[in-house]
Specification:
There is one protein chain. This protein has helices at 9-21, 26-33, 37-48, 58-96, 102-115. The N and C termini lie far apart (63 Å). The protein is built from five helices and no strands. The chain folds into two domains: 7-56; 61-116.
Length: 116
């Protein structure tokens, strides 16, 4: 069984900083250090988060915040659609019961104009 290699934090930081400097292409770094491209990009992501004793980059912090906000927008959109359908069904049930109330008919009509 092959023994798993371990790399020091300083080595990882050095490789990522060389990648970010733009002097060496990712494929060249991978060949030179005998690492996979997936590992290199994982180290790059960790470097951006500040896991190697460096300050996290502002770009990564902003991307994390954007991801959180996108999740929140998705959740609120789903809740909004669910509530629209529930209200539409509830108002429809009121109309089917034979309620001749003018207020019910007006609110149903107004709701349908606003939702569509």
């Amino acid at each position: 069984m092959k023994k798993q290699r371990t790399f020091t934090t300083e080595f990882k930081r050095q490789v990522v900083e060389e990648l970010l400097s733009g002097t060496t292409r990712p494929a060249q770094l991978c060949r030179r250090h005998n690492i996979s491209s997936g590992l290199l990009y994982r180290w790059k992501r960790q470097y951006g988060q500040g896991n190697f004793g460096n300050e996290p980059t502002e770009m990564v912090a902003m991307q994390d915040r954007i991801g959180q906000l996108e999740q929140l927008v998705g959740k609120l959109t789903l809740e909004n659609e669910f509530l629209k359908k529930a209200l539409r069904n509830a108002l429809g049930q009121l109309g089917k019961r034979g309620s001749s109330s003018l207020a019910t008919e007006n609110s149903l009509a107004a709701f349908e104009r606003g939702v569509s």
